[in-house]
Design a protein that fits this description.
Gyrase A, domain 2, 5-stranded mixed sheet, 5-stranded antiparallel sheet, single chain
């Protein structure tokens, strides 16, 4: 959150957990996701996409490398489907794939003190620093159900010492839109290719083959990306409904998939638009108003 000075925590993070364990876990995941998996050090966090044979997005993920397993943080509602997808390609691999859709997931934003981090480690709480989450940085905090007591005690202590505050999902959603973070199932889905999200860092073009890699690489090297993520500023005092069609000279170029009313930036939104309507400064029409394509980060209007 751009105006935030103290760390905050949410217990309503929009993720589900899928645990992949076993001696062949690295080989299996390497062949099914877009990001690097091999030789990750314990504690590393990486991003990527699970892709179909046609190179389209089945889900995006954060991968947390643990001792003996990988934890995949997946979009809410996808852990079961992605688990079944991995099982389909597991064959004789020595891998155990276990979805945990109800696992408590806490997301800590901001920079906690070293004392707070030491206290977490002392309580056996694992903190994973997400290097790609932008500023303020994220600290995904994973807790099994039996750890909830320790987590609650730690959060209480941090709240006293570091002015930690709890935020609701609505506030996190506003922060997401202000930061230009696209969400699977909202801004993009199984109809999109990874490059259309603008997250090139989540795709490795050097790791070798994975499911859908040939098509993803072809789009990259031949310059075939026809859509890209855009930030929008609406002309009225409030944003239109999410999903409204955006048009340039009468032709549809996409939709405003995420919208918000920001106290700092006014009526704003996000969408993946066709290239012809995606240049900053372009004015797009929708029923009842217009929107201007702007660059991120949003500037005060």
């Amino acid at each position: 959150m751009q105006s935030q000075t103290a760390p905050c925590v949410s217990g309503a993070a929009p993720h589900e957990l899928l645990v992949v364990a076993g001696p062949d876990r690295e080989r299996l995941l390497h062949g099914l996701v877009s990001g690097e998996v091999r030789k990750l050090e314990v504690g590393a966090v990486t991003h990527g996409f699970v892709t179909s044979p046609q190179g389209r997005i089945l889900a995006d993920y954060r991968l947390l490398a643990r001792d003996g397993s990988f934890w995949l943080l997946l979009p809410r509602g996808t852990a079961g489907a992605i688990g079944a997808h991995l099982e389909k390609y597991k064959l004789a691999s020595r891998v155990e794939i276990v979805p945990h859709p109800e696992a408590p997931i806490f997301e800590l934003r901001g920079e906690p003190s070293e004392a707070s981090l030491d206290a977490a480690r002392g309580a056996g709480i694992e903190l994973f620093r997400d290097p790609a989450a932008g500023s303020p940085r994220y600290f995904p905090l994973m807790a099994a159900t039996e750890q909830l007591g320790a987590v609650a005690a730690w959060l209480t202590e941090v709240q006293r010492s570091a002015r930690l505050r709890t935020v609701e999902e609505q506030e996190l959603e506003l922060a997401r839109i202000e930061a230009g973070e696209l969400r699977f199932g909202v801004d993009f889905d199984g109809a999109n290719f990874p490059q259309e999200t603008g997250r090139e860092e989540a795709v490795s073009y050097t790791k070798g083959c994975y499911l859908g890699q040939e098509i993803v690489a072809r789009i990259h090297y031949r310059g075939g990306v026809q859509k890209r993520p855009c930030a929008l500023r609406f002309d009225g005092p409030a944003p239109p409904p999410a999903g409204v069609e955006l048009r340039l000279e009468g032709r549809a170029v996409g939709r405003a998939t995420s919208v918000a009313l920001s106290s700092v930036h006014g009526a704003i939104g996000l969408g993946i638009l066709h290239q012809r309507g995606a240049e900053p400064g372009t004015i797009l029409a929708f029923d009842g108003g217009s929107a201007q394509v702007v660059v991120l980060p949003f500037e005060s209007g």
